[in-house]
C-alpha cells in the first residue's frame, strides 16, 4: 500500500515537469573507440565440429596456484603457507601440480625440493623455466629424485610478443624452442642417472590466443620432433590464452585447428590455460574441452595475473552438476576456501560460483517459496518410500550438502523475503510447521524487525521474534496462568470444564461448556473476560520422533473490538496433545490480553 502510493506520487511529479534527457560527458572513455581498439581478427575456419560436442569426462587437471597464482599475489605465500596449500591440493586429488619457478629464487628451489620429497608417487611435480641453459640445468636439479616430474618451458610466439618484447623472428623462435627441448631431454629422460623419475615435458607457445595458428602448429611440430614423445607419456602442449583477446568460440576454433592438424595426435596432450581478461575464462576452457583439449590448467577460485586464471572450482563443479565426476574432491568447500583465503590473502567474492557465501542463499520470497516446494516434494517422496536420487530443486543447480554446505543457510531472511523464508527458518530451528495464515502474519512481524534493524535477520533472531510475538508456550507473558482443570462428559455432545487460573497472583475459578475440551475452555474465557471468543483455526502436528515425540498445536481466536473483528494466534507444545492445545489457547489469550484489545477482570484482593 505504502509502496504503490510512492510510485503514484513519483508518476504525478514527473508528469508535471519535463526532465531533459541525460547526455553522458564521456570524460575518459572515447565515444568512438574504433581508432584506439581494433577487433580481434579470428582465423577463418572452413568447418568446425566442436559446437556439436559435449563434455563427457573429466580432463587432466593442473593446479598452478603455487606458481602462476602465487607469482601474482601482492603478498606472496610464505613457505609454510605454500606447504599447507600443497597438501590441500594433494588432498583434493590433483595429480599434477605446478609448484614454482625454481631457477628464479632459492625459496622457490627449496620449496620444489619439499614438494618432490613429500609428493605421493602418483603426483607429478611441475616446474616452469625459461628456455635458457643455466636456468634449465638448475630446474632439472630441483626436480631430481621425484617419482614424476614435468619440465615446463615457454617461448613468445605471438607477433606482438616476438616483435615488441623479444625481437625474434619466427625461425629464431623455432630454433630456440628446439634447442631448449633437446637440452631438457638430454638432462632428463636421456640421462641414465635420471631414470628413477618419469619425466614429462610441457611446452607453451605464448601467447597462443594471439599467435597465428599455423605458426603455433609449426613450432610445436618442431618441439615434438625434438622430444620424441610416446603414447604412454605424451608431450603436453599448453595453449595459453595468456591474455584473453576474443570471444570463447574463437579460442575453441584455435584449439580444434591445433588438435586436428598436429601430427601423432595420440602422443600429444593438449592443455588449456585461460586467463580471465574478458571474464570468459570458464567458458573458453569449456569450449576448449569441446574442441579437443585433454587437460586444464588453472587455480582454485581463479587467482592469477590481472583478472586471474580460470577457476577450477567452477569448471569442475559445472561438470559435476551435469553428472560427470570431475575427479577432484570439493566435499569440504569451507576448508578449501579457508586455506585459499589464508594463503592468498585475497577473499573469495561472496558471489563466486559454488564457493561464495551467498550462492546457496535465497532472499527473495518467490525463490524461497520455490525452493521450499522442491524440498517438500523430495521429503514427501521419501516418506512414501519412493527412491528418487535425482536432484530437482528450483534455483539450486547443486545440492549444497555435496560440497559440505548447510540447508540452514539456503533460505535467508531480510525485508525482501516472503512468508516462506521465515516459516522455513522456524521449521528448521524449532520444528514448528506454522499454518499458512499464521505465516502471513508472522512474516509481517519479521519484516518489521528487519526493516527496523535495516539488515538481514539471523535464524536465532527469527526464532526469538516468533517466541515473543506469539507468546510461544506462554514463555513471553503469562497474565493468565492455568492452575488446574477438569472436563466432565454429559452425554455424547456436552462437556463442562471447571478449573482454576491465576490472574495477577490471585486464584480465580473458571467454568465453561461446549462439545469438546477446547470449545468449553474457550467458553470459560468468554465468560471470564466478558468477550465472545471463537476458534477460527486449529491445527496440530507431531514434533520430533521416538520417545521424545511432542505435539505442537496452533490456534487462532477471533473476537470483536471497537474497531471490528480481530484475531490472534497462539502456540502450544507438550508431550500430550490435549495439553498442547490447552497451552495454545492460553498462549493466544495472553496474546490478546497483552495487545490491549481485552482487559483482565478486576480481581478483589
Ligand atoms: Zn598464466
TrEMBL record:
The chain's coiled-coil residues are none
> Among its keywords, does the record have Metal-binding?
yes
* Its EC number(s): 2.3.3.13
Which keywords accompany this UniProt record? Amino-acid biosynthesis, Branched-chain amino acid biosynthesis, Leucine biosynthesis, Metal-binding, Mitochondrion, Transferase
The pathway it acts in is: Amino-acid biosynthesis; L-leucine biosynthesis; L-leucine from 3-methyl-2-oxobutanoate: step 1/4
The record's annotation in PROSITE patterns points to: AIPM_HOMOCIT_SYNTH_1, AIPM_HOMOCIT_SYNTH_2, PYR_CT
* EC category: transferase
One biological process GO term for this chain?
A: L-leucine biosynthetic process
Q: Which SUPFAM superfamilies match?
A: 2-isopropylmalate synthase LeuA, allosteric (dimerisation) domain, Aldolase, post-HMGL domain-like
Q: Enumerate the Pfam families for this protein.
A: HMGL-like, IPMS_D2, LeuA_dimer
Q: Which GO terms describe its cellular component?
A: mitochondrion
Q: Which Gene3D superfamilies match?
A: 3.30.160.270, Aldolase class I
Domain Pyruvate carboxyltransferase per the UniProt entry, residue ranges: 59-334
- Localization of this protein: Mitochondrion
Cofactor requirement: a divalent metal cation
* Listed GO MF terms: 2-isopropylmalate synthase activity; metal ion binding
> What InterPro entries does the database record attribute to this sequence?
2-isopropylmalate_synth_dimer, AIPM/Hcit_synth_CS, Aldolase_TIM, IPM_Synthase, LeuA-like_post-cat, LeuA_allosteric_dom_sf, LeuA_N_DRE-TIM, PYR_CT
- Name the domain of life: Eukaryota
The family note in this entry says: Belongs to the alpha-IPM synthase/homocitrate synthase family. LeuA type 2 subfamily.
Q: How does it assemble?
A: Homodimer.
Designated name of the protein: 2-isopropylmalate synthase
Organism in which the protein naturally occurs: Huiozyma naganishii (strain ATCC MYA-139 / BCRC 22969 / CBS 8797 / KCTC 17520 / NBRC 10181 / NCYC 3082 / Yp74L-3) (Yeast)
